[in-house]
Amino acid sequence: MFSRRTLTLVAPLAGLLLAAPATAAGFVDPVAIDRAVSEFTGLPIGVPGGAQLPVDRRLRLLPCSAPFALSWRSATHDSVVVQCPDPRGWRIFVAVTGQAQSDAGPAVAKGDAVTIAATGDGFSVSQPGEALDAGPVGAWIRVRTSAKADSMRAKIVRPGLVELPVE
User: Fold this and answer.
1) 113-165 has which fold?
2) DSSP string of 37-78?
3) What span is annotated as the signal peptide, if there is one (predicted)?
4) Cβ count near 43 (within 10 Å)
5) pLDDT given at position 47
6) pLDDT digits (tens, 9 = 90+) for 154-163
């Protein structure tokens, strides 16, 4: 049947095959990245303004000890940077489908609930808030995080999302 030499070569390979599912569980689930990108853009995969495609399921990214840091790659909002903030973390770019602009009126109305994102080089932190002014995409409006909070100026990125660039 099998020679001693064949068993010596096959046994380690069989061990690797059996261990593969256990090591696969030690990586970041790409679905979690898809979910984070959808929350960041406010739109699902394949919809204008959302991710073009799901994250490649073949990626093997090490887990993070902190939540992902998400930010726009550029002012054109053509891709989202997803980064593991750990010292030896990773960074990937997720392409976003172009969003058609509409002249139907303001993207944000006074009193709308908005997500206020403070973004900078390699990080993004967001919090719910309220729009105190109305405006189209690209306009600067006043927003606040609660009824007792001071207002601040933020730029409208898309309906429901305003951004505070931090430099």
Assistant:
1) SH3 type barrels. (2.30.30)
2) HHHHHTS-TTSTTSBSSPPPTT--PPPPSSPPEEEESSTT--
3) 1-24
4) 21
5) 84
6) 999 899 999 9
Structural domain spans, the chain:
30-95, 113-165
Residues 6+ apart with CB under 8 A from 163: 72, 116, 117, 118, 119, 154, 155, 157
pTM, two decimal places:
0.48
Mean of per-residue pLDDT scores for the chain: 81
Spatial separation of the C-alpha atoms in residues 58 and 139, rounded to whole Å = 40
CA distance 132 to 72: 24
Enclosing H/E stretch for 22: helix 4-24
pLDDT computed for residue 9 by the predictor: 40
d(CA 143, CA 151): 5
Tell me, what DSSP letter sits at residue 135? B
